[in-house]
Amino acid sequence: MVHSPAPKTWSQRFESALHPAIAVFNASIGFDIQLLEYDLTGSEAHARMLAKTGMITSAEGEALVQGLAQIRTEYRQGQFNPTVEDEDVHFAVEHRLVEILGDVAKKLHTARSRNDQVGTDIRLYLRDQIEQIRTQLRQFQTALVTQAEAHVDTLIPGYTHLQRAQPLSLAHHLLAYFEMIQRDWERLGDVLGRVNISPLGCGALAGTTFPIDRGYTAELLGFDRLYQNSLDGVSDRDFAIEFTCAASLILVHLSRLSEEIILWASEEFGFVTLKDNCSTGSSIMPQKKNPDVPELVRGKTGRVFGHLQGLLVMMKGLPLAYNKDLQEDKEPLFDSVVTVKGCLEAMTILISEGISFRAERLAAAVAADFSNATDVADYLATKGVPFREAYNLVGQVVRTSLAAGKLLKDLSLEEWQALHPAFEADIYGAIAPRQVVAARNSVGGTGFDQVRQALTTARQTIAILGN
Ligand code: ARG
Q1: Does residue 282 have an active-site annotation?
Q2: Are residues 221 and 336 in the same domain?
Q3: Same domain for 284 and 222?
């Protein structure tokens, strides 16, 4: 419904209209239209409260609720299209409601300000989004666990400093991300507790002269509790900053995994193949297969860090209570939500159906390096050689083997025994990659028993959907 020029909004104090360019500059309707359904929900609760407390009649309350429902239907059918003259979503609703209902619509704003109204709207919005993102986190965890279950026995080189360190069960590597995402899921649950507080009834800044029932609107809207100080209620955006911080951490995790996948997909590593459904070609080099998905995730991460910084800076100098600066909270918040949801969806698809691990390349990789050197030192230490002494001895062996172009497994028993008499034939079993992994059976280690236990726990964890 494109409606007639907006009714004059400001009081009689104003003699002339806004400069057209300033009207555009001032307007938030271009982006806060995304809050429309939450605005309607908040307004409906407010209308019911006005009727319950006797500030309007129950017939008036019912009319307001019906009018708001009509706007919702119009919006869903693409027929509610406010313009810049409406300024923001709150005025857009009010204007349309007056068109629909006439004078009774003008009672809706009794005992309310756009300041507590917009605070209510963004909390309702964010609460919804957090619930959706937590569901997506669970889906991503499911994809990780499913891949991990298929790769308990697949070995992959483990790195420190991006240098080969010790071999790992691939499942153990994937489950490291599962743990990070679990913290993200918990963190968002924690943030939710501070999002779900009602500012409605704080008024412009000081409360209201009307006998409102804040508990009733909070209950209708599913808020857990009320802001206890009206100034704080209308000017707090901590919850938005906390959310953006939690979103940034999710993206840190997705971005680290992305970086690994990009490396693994390279010719040099060759640990994974990206399937055609998740990779792209080059416009000029016909042989290319590019990892655009993880690259985009890595790239988008910076955007959300920027939004976090932007919100912090926006807040730091604001005197109490509402200032128009706060209108600038929305775009960073909305974009953070869209970005984190998009990245989670893409990475879930990539992990569950867009990647395959190259078993033969991985097996060859772990068999052809010195990542079993620690195990030789551990072997000697088990036989009573002090670990530091054993460590130095193995360092020598690695040096001479490197010079001779050999791996540790290529040394003869005589060569081992020349080095130290404690070596026996079982040294070969001790340094075989599978045994090197199996032996790290300390709690939380990569040993297969530990990994199987971790997988069982992971499956139990993702079955938990609520808080
Ligand atoms: N569009 C405004 C915002 O997003 C709504 C609140 C306006 N309040 C005011 N006192 N001008 O912040």
Answers
A1: yes
A2: yes
A3: yes
Put simply, whether the predicted model's pTM sits higher than 0.90 gets the answer: yes
161, 283, 412, 442: which one is catalytic? 161
**CA 217 / ligand 1 centre spacing (Å):** 21
Kindly report the number of other CB atoms within 10 A of residue 132's CB atom. 13
Long-range CB contacts (within 8 A, 24+) of 151-154: 151/357, 152/448, 152/451, 152/452, 152/455, 153/448, 154/357, 154/359, 154/362
Same domain, 219 and 253: yes
Any atom of ligand 1 within 6 Å of the Cβ of 180 = no
Residues 150 and 286 in one domain: yes
Q: How far is the CA of 41 from the centre of ligand 1 (A)?
A: 18
Which of the listed residues 110, 143, 158 is the one where a domain comes to its end?
Answer: 110
Task: Per residue of the chain (467 residues), give pLDDT as tens.
Answer: 545 445 456 788 888 889 999 999 999 999 999 999 999 999 999 999 999 999 999 999 999 999 999 999 999 999 999 999 999 999 999 999 999 999 999 999 999 999 999 999 999 999 999 999 999 999 999 999 999 999 999 999 999 999 999 999 999 999 999 999 999 999 999 999 999 999 999 999 999 999 999 999 999 999 999 999 999 999 999 999 999 999 999 999 999 999 999 999 999 999 999 998 988 887 878 787 899 999 999 999 999 999 999 999 999 999 999 999 999 999 999 999 999 999 999 999 999 999 999 999 999 999 999 999 999 999 999 999 999 999 999 999 999 999 999 999 999 999 999 999 999 999 999 999 999 999 999 999 999 999 999 999 999 999 987 76
Whole-number Å distance, alpha carbon 122 to ligand 1 midpoint, is 12
Distance in angstroms (rounded) separating the CA atoms of residues 150 and 110: 61
Question: Is there a catalytic annotation at residue 161?
Answer: yes
CATH number, domain with residue 137: 1.20.200.10
What is the best residue among 118, 236, 334 to mutate for testing ligand 1's pocket, by most ligand atoms within 8 Å of CB? 118
